[in-house]
Amino acid sequence: SAFAPSLRGVRSLVATCPTDPLASLHAGTWYKLICGASNQDLASIRNLVAVFALAGADCIDFSADPAVLRAVHSGLAAAAEVASVVGAPPPRPWLMVSVQDGDDDLHFRKAVIDQGNCPLDCNRPCEQVCPAAAFRVDEGVLSVIAERCYGCGRCLPVCPYDRLSAQQQPASLESVRALLPHVDAIEIHTRPGHLQPFRELWRELGPCATEHLRMVAVSTPPLGAGMGAQMAAMDDALVAGGAGELLRMWQLDGRPMSGDVGKGATVPAIELAAQVSAARALPWGDGRYFMSIAGGTNDCTVDVLRSRGLRADTPARLHGVAYGTYARKHVGRVLARLPEGEWAIEAHPELLALALKAALATVGPLKASMPGAGLPSFSSLIS
Questions:
Q1: With a threshold of 0.85, does the pTM exceed it?
Q2: Which stretches of the chain are assigned E, i.e. beta strand?
Q3: What is the pLDDT of residue 376?
């Protein structure tokens, strides 16, 4: 590589141990980057994958779109090239695609502008609240950059003219099936009252999934009274559909797509984890069942987990944390500084170093308790 010599300056920021997602699960330090079930911003995804893979992420979760898969592979190839230059092993995180068990999941939608164009005198609060910079104005006409929008919905209530709405864009079963031979895991997004749709979805996908995958994950919000029993019923459906030999990850979704809103956004997911852990509906820690949190995760999550007694020293411990909006937004600020028309973060070592530092703000604290993690000292990153 022509830029190999200048890349050596990022050596101290790159994980130096081989990626071992299974070891991370057992150690309670499993880190997942959520690219977004509806995010199709290919250049951004490519660079996010490169950066977080180098930082030590164990899993990359992305939309069931073949173009996105190609972007993910491009990012991993870039990460491998950088790792080779700095003398580190090539990162090999698990790859995961997302699917929904119904047509009304907020993770599978995009904002659309209704009833004609936005009035010229509007101050466009939608632009101000959008964490994905998914709005643009061209010759006075406001439009949504569809590939960037991932459905957080913050723009919907602030439109003073009520001209924004959400359009569902569910992943098709055909696209999901086509990708399963090329990934390690699938994540099913469910909702309260969706046990039957969940069963039907797994009947459709189970045979292909069990042939190709290591893990099936279930992303669930609070399910109300009897949540443990509902989780056990879903697990029975997975096992009946052939998932008995797969690892099962239960991702508890506290406050979806809100990690950048404020420090307290992480609390609902942690409280949900405490509730599920106490219920002991599934045999956590037996080597097959794992628990992680998402929805509101940010740079405060690990500290709050520790304060609530949910780190690795509890019997039914939390095994991992998934980071989405917060992680993407903070690294995205660096990616936005790439010169216009350029898309490879590794071609700009000074920006790559800044992006790695931003990524390690969440990777570092989670991995810090894992002996031999091969990560830089977190304290050195913030000094």
A1: yes
A2: 30-34, 59-62, 94-100, 109-113, 135-138, 141-144, 164-168, 185-189, 215-220, 247-253, 289-294, 320-323
A3: 42
